[in-house]
């Protein structure tokens, strides 16, 4: 592969329990097997000081106003922007489990304004592709009960799903929807095919920002 080629930035989105963590790992392994330099990342990134506040909020150890936690999720992305940019320009493909769209979706689901929610993430590096793992929250429940974290409730997940659907329609040029209710292997195959297409387009594309 051309050494001057930058890496691709591929984001996975979807409600809780759609298999994002499994599928990001499977895609990462597939890329490595095919000789593509790749790295897995995940937001929220819980190890930084901001990440630790987010973690204590999600585990219900701490309460914060909706606006404050929203801005912290965004700040958690901003604090990693320089390293994400450096990795991409150095030729590493980044597979990212959740990004700014989760930020908007979970806060809009609480009733806050869509545009207000998107504003703090404007200027972040724009993904080359978003892989949207879609399934009805009702169906996902059959995979076992939700965990103990904040937001892991059926009625809330339904509201989150609506916002992801809106993004998928609005940002259709780089959002790709996958049926997350099918089995792991089938889903992985479809994802790998799409990733291959995305990687082919990278040489012509410079890094863009979220607007
Ligand atoms: N979440 C995640 C948000 O509410 N806003 C964000 O910006 C991001 C990135 O955190 N229920 C929520 C969605 C999840 C929770 O994520 C933890 P994960 O992927 O389960 O670690
Ligand atoms: Mg979770």
Report what the structure shows.
This protein is an alpha/beta fold and 211 residues long. It has a five-stranded parallel β-sheet, with helices on both faces. α3 (66-78) runs antiparallel to α5. The chain has a single domain (9-201), classed as Rossmann fold (3-Layer(aba) Sandwich), CATH 3.40.50. The protein has helices at residues 20-33, 49-58, 66-78, 81-89, 100-108, 114-118, 137-141, 154-170, 184-201, and strands at 9-13, 38-42, 93-97, 129-134, 175-179. The protein is built from nine helices and five strands. It is globular, with a radius of gyration of 17 Å. Helices cover 47% and strands 12% of the residues. Bound molecules: 3'-deoxy-3'-aminothymidine monophosphate and magnesium ion (MG). 3'-deoxy-3'-aminothymidine monophosphate is lined by residues 16, 43-44, 58, 73, 97-98, 102-103, 106, 149, 151.
Short description:
The protein has about 210 residues and is of the alpha/beta class.
Keywords:
211 residues; alpha/beta; Rossmann fold; five-stranded parallel sheet; 9 helices; 47% helix; globular; binds 3'-deoxy-3'-aminothymidine monophosphate; binds magnesium ion
CATH topology: Rossmann fold
Beta strand count? 5
CATH architecture identity: 3-Layer(aba) Sandwich
Shape: globular
Strand content: 5-15%
Span between N and C termini? 31 Å
Q: Provide the domain count.
A: 1
Q: How confident overall, as mean pLDDT?
A: 96
Please give the CATH class. Answer: Alpha Beta
């Amino acid at each position: 592969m051309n050494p001057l080629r930058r890496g691709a930035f591929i984001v996975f989105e979807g409600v809780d329990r759609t298999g994002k963590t499994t599928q990001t790992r499977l895609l990462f392994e597939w890329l490595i097997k095919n000789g593509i330099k790749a790295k897995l990342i995940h937001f929220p990134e819980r190890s930084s000081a901001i990440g630790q506040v987010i973690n204590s909020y999600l585990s219900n150890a701490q309460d914060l106003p909706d606006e404050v936690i929203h801005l912290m999720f965004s700040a958690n992305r901003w604090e990693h922007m320089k390293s994400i940019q450096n990795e991409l320009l150095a030729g590493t493909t980044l597979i990212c489990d959740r990004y700014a769209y989760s930020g908007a979706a979970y806060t809009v689901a609480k009733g806050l304004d869509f545009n207000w929610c998107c504003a703090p993430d404007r200027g972040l590096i724009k993904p080359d592709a978003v892989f949207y793992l879609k399934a009805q929250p009702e169906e996902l429940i059959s995979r076992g009960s939700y965990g103990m974290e904040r937001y892991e409730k059926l009625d809330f997940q339904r509201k989150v799903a609506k916002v992801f659907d809106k993004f998928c329609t609005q940002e259709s040029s780089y959002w790709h929807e996958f049926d997350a209710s099918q089995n792991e292997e089938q889903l992985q195959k479809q994802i790998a095919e799409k990733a291959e297409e995305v990687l082919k387009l990278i040489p012509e594309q410079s890094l863009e920002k979220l607007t």
